[in-house]
Each structure stands twice: as C-alpha cells, then as structure tokens.
Amino acid sequence: MSSGFDFDHEISREGTSSLKYDGRQSMFGKDDVIPAWVADMDFAAPPAVTRALAQRAAHPIYGYTLFPDGLYDALIGWMQRRHNWTIQRDWIVLCPGVVPSLNAAVMAFTQPGESVIIQPPVYFPFFSAVTQTGRKLIQNPLRLEDGRYTIDFDHLAQCAQDARLLLLCSPHNPVGRVWQPAELERLLQIAEQHDLIIFSDEIHADLIYPGHKHYALATFPEHAAKIITAVAPSKTFNIPGLNLSALIIPGKSIRTAITQAFNNLHVSASNPFSIAAFEAAYREGEPWLEALLTYLRNTRDDVEAFLAQHLPEIKVIRAEGTYLLWLDCRALNRTDAQLKHFFIHEAGVGMSPGILFGAEGSGFMRLNIGAPRRTVLRVLEKIRQAKTQAELTS
Questions:
Q1: CA of residue 150 relative to chain centroid, distance
Q2: pTM above 0.85, yes or no
C-alpha cells in the first residue's frame, strides 16, 4: 500500500464475461473452483490506462482508427528504458496478439511439410501454430536438472539441421526461466549455423524477479536480421482482453514477409480502445509495474514457504520471471487424470494441467499467482485440506 496501489483489494470479476471466472463451468465442469489458470491477473489495470480508456470512451464515435505517432513513441521509449534496446519505428509491426503472430510467422517462413522447432514444456499454442498449418513439429525438450530447466543445445543442433524456424519462449512459459546471455548466444550460434529464423515470444519480458535480467534476443546485433520479437503490454499491465501487441523486426525482408501474411488474412489490430490503453501503459505505467513486481515476488516467496512447510510433496520450480508457477506434483503419485480430478473436485482449485504444455508437463500443474495474496494462499490451503482428507480416507 505504500506504493499507492492496492493489490490486496479483491475485485469480483463474475458476470463480466471473464474467461477466467465465467468460463469455469466449461473449463472445469463446475463453477465452485478458485480459478488460477488462464494467464491474466485479478488486479486493476494501472490508473493511467483506466483514465485513457475513459477519455477515449467519452468521445462518442468509435470508427476506424489509425496508429498514432504517440503509440510508436511510447513503445520505443519503453524498450529503451526497460531493456536498453534502441529500436526504430519502421521495425514495428502492430498486430492483434502474440498467438496470431505465431501462426503468421509459421505461414510466412515455412511451407506445408517443413519443420518448426519448439521447446516443451511450452505454451500450448506453440504446438497448434505448427500442427494446424500442416507443418512438421520438431521438439527440443527442455531438461530439468536440480530443480531448474535448461536448453539441450546438442539436441537443438541436431533438430536445426532439418528446420527452418524456431519458436522461442523468453521468458519461458510455463517453467519461469529467464534465459542468460550465454544461453542466448549459444542458441543464436546454432541458428546462424543452420540458417534458422527465430520467433522470440517475449510477452513476459517485463515480469522479472530480483537477481535476474531479461535480454531481448535481438539485442545481439550480429544475429538481429533473422529475429522476430513479440512484445505487448497485455501481461505486463493486465490488459490482455484489448488484443494489441507488436512485433519488432529489424530485418526488412523478414518484416515484409510477415506483414504480407497479415495482409493476406485481412487482420487488423486497429481498435480505438486498445490503442489508447497501449500508449498509456507504456508511457505512464512504470510506477504501477514496479509495485506489482514487489508484490508478485513476495507472493512467490510465500507460496514456496507454504509448500515447503505444509505440502512438501509438491515442489515448486523457482520462477525467475512471469506470474506463473510450475508445480512438480509427481511425488503425489497420481496420473494426470487423477491430478486433474484431485485439484478440481477434491480441492476446488482450477489450475492448468501440465500435460497441456506437452508430454514433458506430465505430473505438473501451472499456478497463476497474479491475484490478491490471500486468494493465492486460500488456493494452497484448500489443496492442503484436500490432501489431508484424502490421506484420512485412504
């Protein structure tokens, strides 16, 4: 509260057509679960965003809208301040979200039957962007070593021999890794050797915990011409429903190809409200974000402490970034179907099953901690009670 932003305030989202809350019946088969799944937060957006939306709504005509100079300037300033990355306006391609951009990149740079590399366990649209467009999926699974995920570079080099495109998640969803410069350099060396184009999903780049630093892949200038970087204010400022993101593409030929892919689909990201929110967030949202990061760090630490004390069978992979925690539930000795039943029907908690993120996610769950801390701790307490009850009746 000393920051002036009240992240402890609980705001009811029921009846707002919220996917997270009003979609519980279709997602979990029941309404009475605490939802901790889809990656949006239960915090009010920054006041600057709310003001900008109200001001735009006050003008009663909502027609076709251009992208104003201020929007580009806000993004350029943000990348310079937060990531020490000087970008040019003509590198920016505005688009309606990262997932459509994944699909556009796959269609722009590969032909049906050609291969695309992903690194599971990973955000599940990475899979569908490849398989639903008739491309061949090559999986370079991350390695879990001593409670931390790493890239298997030897295997990646083998995969790259037959691939055209690599879909990178940085920071990584769901495992919470923030890739270090040495890791990114090695990845880029492999890409250079095999002439890979890289789509780098950096939508969580602003959500980094102390002791870690995000490095935009394209800030390694010798490789930047073949890198597409996806960014957005959606996760950072909790405005994903407004559907506006940006691709930053230094390479002109790459930029032209992906722009053509969007043009072929007649997809427009121009929306008067998303434009207003985008600019306000990047221009004025920094104090709110700093307060949020402190709050999320404390919540993360409280979750780790609770699990260690009360649920030691559930190991949390320590998050270096994002507000998503990757829970290793394998010691509970349940199948994925049994885990799903336990959390939903016994604990009354709605998380994302790890198996959604690939076979490597079997036995894991993804917990969204972007909520008032008492809500997150209530989730953990319900799990503890359900486990105790299950042990008493077994």
A1: 18
A2: yes
